[in-house]
Amino acid sequence: MGVFCTGDVNLIELSGAAHYKATRMLHYDVVVIGSGPAGENGAIEAARAGKKVCLVEKEAVPGGASANTGTIPSKALRETALAIQQARSRDAHGIEVRVSGTVTIPELMGRRGLVTAREHSRIRDALVRAGVEVLRGVASFVDPHTIRVTVADGGGTQDLQADVVLLATGTRPFHPPQYLIDNIRVYDSDSILLLDHVPRSLAVLGGGVAGSEYASLFAALGVKVSLVDSKERLLPFLDAEVSHAMQDLFAMAGIDLYHGTRATHLEVGEKDVLVTLAEGSRLVAEKVLVASGRIGNVEALNLEAAGLQATERGLLKVSPQFQTSVPHIYAAGDLVGFPGLASVSMDQGRVAMSHACGGILKQRVSELLPVGIYTIPEVSSVGETEEALKAKGRPYVVGKASLAMNARANLIGEAVGFLKLIADANDGKILGVHCIGPHASELIHTGAAVMSHAGDLQYFVEAVFNYPTLGEAYKYAAYDALDRMRERQTGNVWPFERAAST
After folding, report:
1. Residue 83: its pLDDT value, please?
2. How many Å from the N-terminal Cα to the C-terminal Cα in the chain?
3. How far is the C-alpha of 148 from the C-alpha of 157, rounded, in Å?
């Protein structure tokens, strides 16, 4: 057995003959299982702390669902759909935009292959620079400190002894038992990306993040979409005004919304699928996407041998430092549940290994977690919602700026939505920022930065924004919020003016 380099990653070679049996246990300070955002960044954080680290990955390429089956591929398809929609909205004379009925979904992903390949290279290079060894195989616990790695195709096994373990195996689409997902008529959120053509119609079962994103994406491609959601409004963790605005824009895009109901039966025919809903109504679609959430990848881990037990959805409960009930075993990323965002998973892995290895760079995950939802249009949020502040009894004011009136939004052909600021009614401190519209996931970071420094509305009033930009919406939203504050004060003097004059 030796160590060799594949794609510039230090890789322990276990690909010998089928009869190979490892006899020497290898010891590491830290063993990380999974190379998605949490695993990659956790491994690098541990290596930075001077630890000997091995990362185990079962796939031939690193990156997990984020790079290979979820985030990057779906966003690549979204960019194509958005470009088509924007081109139609710009009303350029003499230009006709249409989607061929024979084009495949992978073909519509455009730069997906390039982006994914560069992600693979980036991850490999980062692990090499940090000195992390990478072992390809399926990991399972023998006991709380011993991990057995099994190489595919009879390549043998290797036992690793670890002082600390980080579980970052991620999740996969959940398959409800009442639906047969055959990847011919009925798909999940991974396999839908392999469609051999753009369907005439699509029924999306589940109005969570993935269901909402795919519903709007396919609608932008000209597909007739029906969205079935068991909740009374889409994405109820969002500020209600934003959630309702998203529903309105979906309806304007031609999406049929079915709230407060579920699909109880799917009858697959030769050309279409008959979907029966709980209240008895029916709808017909050429294809069906089952978007019923995700389940943790824990089956192969043999958690019982480590003294651990996952939830019914395959998730692990952890402390604020991401320790499981077995103190030297940590878990991070999608495996620990909400919010299940790649951005948050990265910091969870860093915090976990910083805690385990005595690091000081990353002690906690920020309380200000921006949520980016890549529907068309995008939705993004950070901080308090109106509903949360009402429940707390905290007085607040709201200021909004319409992106439909924003010059840049009109120029790019996506003039919809608004930017919403929520501020303390007494001192103008920014408490929450919510946006639906073009590039919302980028736009939200300006507000998050101001919030992280306890900033108030006056910052946006005094700041100078480039014109035309989407960012200038912050200034108009701040002026609107200050008007609301003035209405709450005695007289017509803004509180900032009163403070300046004393």
Report:
1. 83
2. 77
3. 7
HSE, CB side, 13 Å, CA atoms: give it for residue 262.
9
- CA quadruple 129, 131, 137, 143: dihedral sign: negative
**Beta partners for residue 397, in sequence order:** 423
Q: What whole-number distance in Å separates Cα of residue 113 and Cα of residue 134? A: 23
Q: Which residues contact residue 6 at a Cβ distance below 8 angstroms, ignoring those fewer than 6 apart?
A: none
Report pLDDT for 6.
38
Q: Which helix (H) or strand (E) holds 263?
A: strand 263-268
Are 39 and 173 in contact by the 8 Å Cβ rule? The answer is no
Q: Residue 185: its pLDDT value, please?
A: 96
Phi, psi of 236, rounded to the nearest 5 degrees:
-65, -10
Nearest 5 degrees, angle CA 408-CA 411-CA 412? 90
Beta strands across the sheet bearing 224-229: 186-187, 287-290, 201-205, 224-229, 256-259
Provide the whole-model pTM. 0.87
Dig out the tokens for 70 from the structure.
Answer: 């979820």
**CB-hemisphere CA count at 13 Å for 332?**
36
The single-letter DSSP state of residue 253 is T
d(CA 449, CA 27): 42
pLDDT lower than 70: segments of the chain: 1-23, 89-98, 100-102, 360-361, 490-502
The three-state secondary structure class of 160 is strand
SS3 483: helix
Over residues 204-263, the pLDDT tens digits come to: 999 999 999 999 999 999 999 999 999 999 999 999 999 999 999 999 999 999 999 999
What are the backbone dihedrals phi and psi of residue 419, each rounded to the nearest 5 degrees, phi first? -110, 130
Instruction: Provide the pLDDT for residue 107.
Output: 80
What are the Cα distances from residue 356, in Å, to 45, 70, 340, 439?
Answer: 10, 29, 22, 37
In the numeric block, which tokens belong to residue 308?
Answer: 């651990």
CA distance 471 to 449: 13
Residues 6+ apart with CB under 8 A from 388: none
Pull the structure tokens for residue 458.
Answer: 């006056």
| Predicted pLDDT of residue 284 | 97
- Please tell me the distance from the alpha carbon of residue 266 to that of residue 281, in angstroms, as a whole number: 12
pLDDT at 122: 92
Query: Three-state DSSP class for 103?
Result: coil
User: Residue 158: its pLDDT value, please?
Assistant: 93
DSSP 186: E
**Could you tell me where the beta strands, DSSP code E, fall in 357-450?**
371-373, 378-383, 396-402, 418-424, 430-437
* Dihedral pair phi/psi, residue 406, rounded to 5°: -85, 130
H helix runs in 400-502, sequence order: 407-411, 440-452, 457-462, 473-488, 495-501
Q: Kindly report the length of the chain.
A: 502
pLDDT of amino acid 8? 40
Position 364 scores a pLDDT of 83
Looking up tokens 């736009």 gives 443
Based on its alpha-carbon atoms, the radius of gyration of the chain, rounded to whole angstroms, reads 25
Cβ–Cβ < 8 Å for 439, 382: no
